[in-house]
Amino acid sequence: MKKYKRIGIRFLDExxxxxxxxxxxxxxxxxxxxxxxxxxxRRDTPKQMHYYIDYNRNDPEYTQMLEDLGYRFIDxxxxxxxxxxxxxxxxxxxxxxxxRDLMLEEVFPERDIWLSALLLLxxxxxxxxxxxxxxxxxxxxxxxTLAGGIVLAAMFMVVLLIVQxxxxxxxxxxxxEGLPVRMKLLKGLSALTEISGMVLVxxxxxxxxxVYHHSLFLIxxxxxxxxxxxxGRTLLNRYIIPLSEQKKRLLRTFIVIAAVGxxxxxADSRLNELKNTGRRTSLPLYTDxxxxxxxxxVNPWLERIDVYGSVTVPEEMVLECRSGTISDIVFSRxxxxxxxxxxxxxxxxFTMYGRTMTPDTVPERELPSAENAQAMFVHxxxxxxxxxxxxxxxxxDNVISFESQEKQYRRSAALMRRGSRIIMVLGTPAQIxxxxxxxxxxxx
Amino acid sequence: MARKEFATLTPQMFYILLALYEPRHGYDVMQAVHEMxxxxxxxxxxxxxxxxxxxxxxxxxxxxxxxxxxKIYQITPYGxxxxxxxxxxxxxxxxxxxxxxxx
Lengths: 444, 103
Prior knowledge:
The complex is a heterodimer.
Chain A: E1 2-6, H1 14-26, E2 29-34, E3 38-43, E4 50-54, H2 60-69, E5 72-77, E6 80-85, H3 96-107, H4 110-132, H5 144-176, H6 183-212, H7 215-239, H8 245-276, E7 305-307, E8 310-311, H9 324-344, E9 350-352, E10 355-357, E11 377-382, E12 386-390, H10 402-417, E13 421-426, H11 429-443
Antiparallel strand pairs in A: 1-3, 2-3, 4-6, 5-6, 7-8, 9-10, 11-12, 11-13
Chain B: H1 11-19, E1 24-25, H2 26-36, H3 45-58, E2 61-67, E3 70-75, H4 77-101
Antiparallel strand pairs in B: 1-3, 2-3
């Protein structure tokens, strides 16, 4: 049987840590392993056990002496080494000032500060991405709260980082002068950093989940970070042992940042490719999970639909597609919608990028079972980069409630005020009239 | 974190340096301090092995030999000087204390 206990900031308070370990032993749980995140306990008959914490590097002479003296080595976590014995032995660190010195070296400042800096970097990059790529912009995806959360968490982390830096500098100076260090403050800061880091990371993941509906990223991102940490540590331990623990930590952080950075650069380069070319076949970031049953054979133009409704269209059929990505979406959705309208007996006649689509240009296809659904589609854009789509949650919905769409109307109206133009409005005459009057009202 | 040279010696540092007037290996130092102070000062093994490399790095002590894979250290003239400095500081404190209390 195994039991895990999160380590967190326990190392900041050695006495409390030892007390906890001895309590666990009395309950029959014995420390077995000390990982980066967790202490692992194994089950045995409860008994009194004494624990000792040490911060020295592994020196053969020293290790041998400890063994001879009766200290049994359990495991090490970075420079923190755990020992135990059934008899009470003298503490390993008998000099309180030196102990604090060693402990501070172990805990501060690199780990937390570099962690904060890394998270901050990721957060900042994420925010930049969301603004740069309007297609993924949170503000067009109804995820303002999430975006706000990320910005707030990131800002909070900036403040924390600065406060922490100041506190650590002070602590180090005090420690050098032999004055007491305010451990409670450092503890609090460390805990806050962890919490805000978690908030930031979860918000970023939530965005991937919410906006991109893509679980791959959710798994890939943490996996990548963990894998690079593991690889970094293995490499360092195997080949670069003489480096000091702090330099190792720096290198590890660097490896993680580099790994994540490379990952993002690859993703970004694909995005840019997508933004700048009229034709493309795939985008690794996002796959449209809405699959319409009639989509596959909807039109001979559609060679393939693979990414968020993006299609590969022969050049001669591309109607003034200035921005590949956006027009692809519009185009594919129009085709879908056109096919749908035609099937329901409506007369599809609409304008797209200045061209009129007629029943002849819209393909025929089988439709989903919801007959006579009155779907509508509004698209506004400016300069082909500002995209906003408005459509029913599902084409299968028979009735579109105006209330539920009102927020979206308002948003598209706001876009128009900013200079966007309505490219196309589709719907029943009544709906079109309703939408247009709403827009006109808000414009005047 | 760049470590600074010790500003003052803690009692444990003081006794370790005292014990190293004779060439000794680690465990020997612990024993010597124990005997020297009649068991009043006990040097933790962790403290000793954290301090030895630091003393070595700062030039307070030097490596003078090795037996049975145990390193033997001894105090250097610089170390003695530091120890004397510490002693003068303590004597001054003692003197101040005598003056203030009249005993």
